Amino acid sequence: MTVPRRHVAIVVDVGGTATRLALAEDGRLTDTIVRVPTPSPRIGVADPVGQLLDLIAEQSDRLREALPDRHVDAIGVAFGAVVTNAGVVRNASTLWLAPSTGLDVAAALRDRLPWAPVTVVNDVAAAPWHYRELGRFLYATVSTGIAIKAFDAGLPGARKVLLDPEWLGGESGHTIVDPTALDAVPGGAAAAVRLGRAAAGGDPDARADLDRLGLPWCECGAVGDLCAYASGPGTIRVAAAEARRLPESFAGSVLAELTGSDPDRIDGAALARAAARGDAFTATVLHRVTRPLAARLLQLCADLGLDRAVIAGGFAHGVGAPWFDALRANVDELMVDAGWFTGWTAEQRAGLLVRPPDTGDAPLGGMAALLAEGHRRYLSLVKPVGDGGLVVHEREVPGCGREQFQLRMRYAGICGTDLRILRGDVGCEPEIPGHECVAEVVAVGDSITGLTVGQVVTLNPNNPLDDSDKLGHNRPGTFTQLLTLDHGVLSRGQVVDVPEIAGPEWVLVEPLAAALRANRATTEFVPGERVLVVGGGLSGLMLAGLARLRGAATVLLASRTPATVERAVQLGFCSPEHGLPLNDELGSAVLAATGGFGVDAVYVAVGSNAGTATVATLWPALAKTAAVNLYGGFPADSRLPVGDGDVIAVGPLRSAAAHQWVDNPAGGKVVVLGNRGGRREHLLAAVELFRGAGSELGLDRLVTHIVSLPAAPRVAAELARHGTVDGRPALRVVIDPWLPGTVVRVC
């Protein structure tokens, strides 16, 4: 049995001052930690966003190069800003002094680091994992803002931070903690809101009014929220307001001594030094500002049945013991011996607040543990038997047997066949659909040769020895994070190398191989000077692109819908005058477009089982010697009439990649061909074509959407019904199985 390989990750902690990177193995940090300044406009950096992303990529590449004998499984970034679990910024003002809303940090890093899956989450969503051995607890960070998360050990293998689907929950700082205080403002809560916004906007009169009323305000414009009291900036403002409101008490304080009796000079360092010297004025301020936080922690503990709260954050730990003493005193005063807290012992009360010494390592260590936890389980999209929908299943990662290998999917394409399976147009029950992919080898059994961990590959889903044996048809397919395959798939040549940097468009290697096979077979019989492609879907566009690339003088494209023809023209797959409507007049339109000669090659790539009816309209449009390739739109039991009572059994013709000469009912000779999918040689040729002419062929323009695995059931259902995603026409939709949340990106 293969020995399980250690999970190796590069983890990153992006803070306002410094960015740190480290290596981690199986969820534990190693001694390899790199610390670099975070690019910021505060230090004169003109492009802090670009420089930060380049910095992370550069340092990650260096760490990877230091591991020549080990494979990096993942990159995880704990980001010091409000960011979704898909890595999209909601507000990064604390980093860059600008919100940068909508910036896709994860996508930008994936572009720079294509060799490993990239996960980006808020640092406070990652940090609780560092203390996972505590079981169930609150994690609160007190710095420039305040966030509170709940960690639940749950059942074995089900540990998690309790969060919403985008992982934004826990931004507790901007909730009002004393609503009755707003009644002190003349005009009530509405007037308090106006004053708070004005104060946050810099209005000195509004700030003076709130100071006089004893009401703290927050940068967000709220009055009396948790940040206004207990955050670092909030505490400094409260201390300054108290100094102005109580000048006599302030005058005799250590804090006044340290600030020259100027309330505007109070900062975090002065508060910490005064508190350390036992200053009574500072102690009173700390007691006041930590009281709402104590109440909030007690409420959450009672709500969720928790008996521990881990306190982190630069401000809380910077002020140190006096700050924690003030919080403990408030907890003791506010804890009621009732409900959840009934009968608590002195030891239990003392153990409620946890002040760990290593909170600086929590984002890095937590990110490492979070990635390792995800490595132990994986998600798949399952089609229940007889059901037309997809559901997300979570499974334990299985071991890799001696004659097995495991692939981690980077990308999986949703193709027309997958949609036909979902609609029930064909009777396949693959459990897990999908057959187009880019994947990375992550485990190799002892008896497997020719594969190495880290190798990037695609798959030929078709068993070349058995036409009824196909991944995503009768075998589990690629709509999964992890796919375990046996030695037979490798020995039959179904595993094909692709470049390490292969992006989502490389899922098209398999359909391109099928189109390339059809093109080669057809041009063996006719020159393909004048070509008609019937069908404007992805296959039709590929066939048209190949015909143009191979030097066809005229490439016509026909489709039922004008919008599809217009799209083909816009994407550059046919010229405006060569886009034709697919109707009963198609034959006449083809003759007109070819000066009466007709076309010498036709590729029928229609959907909805419309192939037979389509061919019937084309006989008059063919040249005297012509080829018709039955590429798509034909059920396995289709029978194609060809005149004089002759009938071609389409299924066997396509399965055998055979051909048959027939008399054209309109005069002349026609070779009818068919194939399904490609063989290894065609996939290899498609890879080389991708490398050399992929851009010229326009393959990158064929991927219109990238979706996360949890979003795929909804997206696939809409695709199957309407051919759209969120109401927009789609060509190839690609699943990125490692995108968290329900993400849908338009390319």
Nutshell version of this structure?
This protein has 747 residues and is of the alpha/beta class. Helix content is 35%, strand content 23%. Helix 1 crosses helix 3 (105-112) and helix 12 crosses helix 14.
List keywords for this structure.
Nucleotidyltransferase, domain 5; eight-stranded mixed beta sheet; Quinone Oxidoreductase, Chain A, domain 1; alpha/beta; GroES-like_sf; seven-stranded mixed beta sheet; 747 residues; 4 domains; ROK family protein; Zn_alcohol_dh; ATPase_NBD; oxidoreductase
Verbal overview:
Belongs to the ROK (NagC/XylR) family. It comes from Plantactinospora alkalitolerans. Residues 403-486 form the Alcohol dehydrogenase-like N-terminal domain. The protein folds into four domains: 8-131 and 363-372, ATPase, nucleotide binding domain (Nucleotidyltransferase, domain 5); 173-358, ATPase, nucleotide binding domain (Nucleotidyltransferase, domain 5, 2-Layer Sandwich); 376-502, Quinone Oxidoreductase, Chain A, domain 1 (Alpha-Beta Complex), CATH 3.90.180; 511-681, NAD(P)-binding Rossmann-like Domain (Rossmann fold, 3-Layer(aba) Sandwich). The radius of gyration is 32 Å and the shape is elongated. It has 747 residues and is an alpha/beta fold. A hairpin with a 5-residue loop joins strand 5 and strand 6.
Layout of SSEs?
Elements (H helix, E strand, L loop, with lengths): L7 E7 L3 E8 L2 E10 L10 H18 L8 E6 L2 E2 L5 E3 L1 H4 L8 H8 L5 E5 H4 L10 E6 L3 E7 L7 E2 L26 H13 L3 H10 L12 H5 L1 H14 L1 H5 L2 H6 L8 H9 L3 H25 L4 E4 L1 H6 L1 H14 L11 H5 L2 E2 L7 H14 L1 E6 L8 E6 L7 E11 L1 H8 L12 E9 L11 E4 L22 E5 H5 L3 E3 L11 H15 L6 E5 L3 H12 L4 E6 L2 H9 L8 E3 L4 H8 L5 E7 L5 H6 L5 E11 L6 E5 L2 E4 H6 L3 E5 L5 E5 L6 H18 L5 E6 L3 H11 L1 E2 L2 E2 L2 E5 L7 E3 L1
Parallel strand pairs: 1-4, 4-7, 8-11, 11-12, 20-21, 20-23, 21-22, 23-24, 24-28, 29-32
Antiparallel strand pairs: 1-2, 2-3, 5-6, 8-9, 9-10, 13-14, 15-16, 15-18, 15-32, 16-17, 17-19, 25-26, 27-28, 29-33, 30-31
Helix pairs in contact: 1-3, 5-6, 8-12, 12-14, 17-26, 19-20, 19-25
Keywords: Oxidoreductase
Protein name: ROK family protein
Pfam family, one: ROK
